[in-house]
């Protein structure tokens, strides 16, 4: 059992980035002084089979702070930058310890930004400074809203400064940040913000407690999700279970299953599009195989049998052409959020 600790820092910095994030993170960290008095925890969308050392080495070249891969149970230290483990969520606890988990993917990503932001909001409240950088789709928007609800400070990269502006624009469409500025100006701002006195702590909303516990795998059951919303006639792309709708305003619609998978409306639509495309390619392959079999069969037949077989093959040709037209068309909705 680890000894209980009291964090020595006044603030923590949590940063979320996706596509274009390497350049933005490099520029941001380069602007922080070597004596920066707060820990920095970063989630950047990375593929499950990525080499964690690659991002670590690239960022370490851009900053005087110590950059390291997060390890469960390690205490946060000021002046350190913590990076996620591929295919794992990265979160923080109330005693200032790191948590690396294999919880269900959120917004089609693991690591995802929202779980980090929610965990920081829950455990550090007004002492959190959350930063959302470049990326596609809208991971991080819900997490920033949680930070805002708990009295923390929200910073969004100016979309005009972002290589991929969709993620910052999503957040700006749903909340009023404390600051919206280019990455090149964030170092000076952060140095000023961490030198101030923290505000009085605020109560943590119950829905945030529930969602952060689900991500931490402390609880993940139907009763917990029932408190967050209502079941809807949609299935979870991740496990096939029922989805619950969380939030009612069009811009705030999110969905959860009782296993722990979570989606914004945009990420759910993107995942459905991907599954539709995969299904259509499977159907095309099966139709073409059957057409080829019928062609071989028809060649060996005569008379009425051959005529019937060729008619069946003609029907399959029609289906094949229709599927090809669908696959060549652009499905509605957002594309996959490639890092």
From TrEMBL:
<feature type="active site">
    <location>
        <position position="139"/>
    </location>
</feature>
<dbReference type="InterPro" id="IPR000673">
    <property type="entry name" value="Sig_transdc_resp-reg_Me-estase"/>
</dbReference>
<keyword id="KW-0378">Hydrolase</keyword>
<dbReference type="GO" id="GO:0005737">
    <property type="term" value="C:cytoplasm"/>
</dbReference>
<feature type="active site">
    <location>
        <position position="18"/>
    </location>
</feature>
<feature type="active site">
    <location>
        <position position="45"/>
    </location>
</feature>
<dbReference type="GO" id="GO:0006935">
    <property type="term" value="P:chemotaxis"/>
</dbReference>
<dbReference type="GO" id="GO:0000156">
    <property type="term" value="F:phosphorelay response regulator activity"/>
</dbReference>
<dbReference type="GO" id="GO:0008984">
    <property type="term" value="F:protein-glutamate methylesterase activity"/>
</dbReference>
<dbReference type="Pfam" id="PF01339">
    <property type="entry name" value="CheB_methylest"/>
</dbReference>
<dbReference type="InterPro" id="IPR011247">
    <property type="entry name" value="Chemotax_prot-Glu_Me-esterase"/>
</dbReference>
<protein>
    <recommendedName>
        <fullName>protein-glutamate methylesterase</fullName>
        <ecNumber>3.1.1.61</ecNumber>
    </recommendedName>
</protein>
<keyword id="KW-0145">Chemotaxis</keyword>
<feature type="domain" description="CheB-type methylesterase">
    <location>
        <begin position="6"/>
        <end position="197"/>
    </location>
</feature>
<dbReference type="InterPro" id="IPR035909">
    <property type="entry name" value="CheB_C"/>
</dbReference>
């Amino acid at each position: 059992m680890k000894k209980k600790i009291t964090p020595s820092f006044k603030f923590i910095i949590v940063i979320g980035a996706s596509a274009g994030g390497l350049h933005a993170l490099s520029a941001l960290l380069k602007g922080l002084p070597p004596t920066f008095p707060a820990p920095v925890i970063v989630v950047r969308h990375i593929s499950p089979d990525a080499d964690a050392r690659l991002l670590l080495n690239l960022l370490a070249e851009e900053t005087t702070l110590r950059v390291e891969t997060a390890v469960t149970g390690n205490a946060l230290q000021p002046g350190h930058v913590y990076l996620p483990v591929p295919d794992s969520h990265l979160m923080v606890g109330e005693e200032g310890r790191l948590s690396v988990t294999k919880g269900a993917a959120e917004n089609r990503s693991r690591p995802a930004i929202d779980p980090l932001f929610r965990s920081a909001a829950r455990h550090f409240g007004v002492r959190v400074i959350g930063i959302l950088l470049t990326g596609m789709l809208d991971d991080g928007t819900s997490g920033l809203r949680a930070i805002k609800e708990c009295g923390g400070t929200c910073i969004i990269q100016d979309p005009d400064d972002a290589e991929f502006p969709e993620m910052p624009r999503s957040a700006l469409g749903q909340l009023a940040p404390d600051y919206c500025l280019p990455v090149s100006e964030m170092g000076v701002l952060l140095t000023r913000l961490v030198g101030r006195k923290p505000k009085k702590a605020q109560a943590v909303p119950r829905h945030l407690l529930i969602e952060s516990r689900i991500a931490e795998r402390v609880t993940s059951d139907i009763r917990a999700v029932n408190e967050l919303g209502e079941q809807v006639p949609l299935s979870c792309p991740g496990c096939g279970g029922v989805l619950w709708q969380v939030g009612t305003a069009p811009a705030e619609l999110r969905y959860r299953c009782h296993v722990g998978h979570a989606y914004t409306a945009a990420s759910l639509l993107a995942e459905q599009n991907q599954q539709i495309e995969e299904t259509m390619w499977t159907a095309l392959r099966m139709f073409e195989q059957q057409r080829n079999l019928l062609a071989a069969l028809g060649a060996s037949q005569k008379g009425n049998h051959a005529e019937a077989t060729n008619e069946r093959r003609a029907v399959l040709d029609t289906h094949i052409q229709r599927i090809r037209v669908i696959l060549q068309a652009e499905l509605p909705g957002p594309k996959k959020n490639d890092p």
